[in-house]
Amino acid sequence: MDELSKDQTCPHAGECPLQRWREDFPIRWENDSYVTRRELTKFLTLGSGLLAAANAALAIAGLRPEARRFSSVRIAGAAEVPPGGSLLFRYPTDADPCILVRERNGVLAAYSQVCTHLSCAVIYRPEEDTLFCPCHHGYFAPDDGRPTAGPPTRRLPRILLEQRGDDLYAVGVEV
Predict the structure, then answer these.
(1) What's the whole-model pTM score?
(2) Do 134 and 49 share a domain, yes or no?
(3) Which residue, 52, 86, 100, 107, has most beta carbons within 10 Å?
(4) From the CB of residue 90, how many other CB atoms can be counted at a distance below 10 Å?
C-alpha cells in the first residue's frame, strides 16, 4: 500500500489503517536523519583499518626482546660446569628457578627453568642436546631457548651472563 500524503484521503471505507498507524507511531521526518550506506561503509572501513593498524603495532612490539637489568649475582665458577652439564640457580629472586647449560661445544647459556607452556620445570638432556619439559613433552633448543617440539610456542626467557675472571654472573633477563 502506498503511503498517503497528509492531504490525500484513504481509499478504504471507514477508518483508514494508515492513519491509525501514523497516530500510533508518529515520525517527525524533519528531525529524522539517516546514515547513508556510503557513510556506514566509510565508518566500517576506517574502523577496520584502525584495528588492523593497532594489531600490527602490537605484533611488532611483541617481536622485540626486552632485556631487564637486575643486580648481578654470582652463579658459579666457569670450570664448575663441564661440557654437557648443567647447574640450577635462582635469579633475579629466590622464587625464580633458572638453569645454566654448557653445551658439548663449550658454549654457556642460561634460561628460566619455568616452561612457557604450563610452568613446569625444564631439565637439560645432554644426550639429546635439548632442554626438556617432562609435563607435556616440550623441547627447547639450548642455544637460544626457542621451542623445537611439543606444546610450547614461546621461547624460554634468557638469563644474561657475564664472565668476570673465572666466575659467571647473572646480570639481567631477556624476555
Answers:
(1) 0.64
(2) no
(3) 100
(4) 14
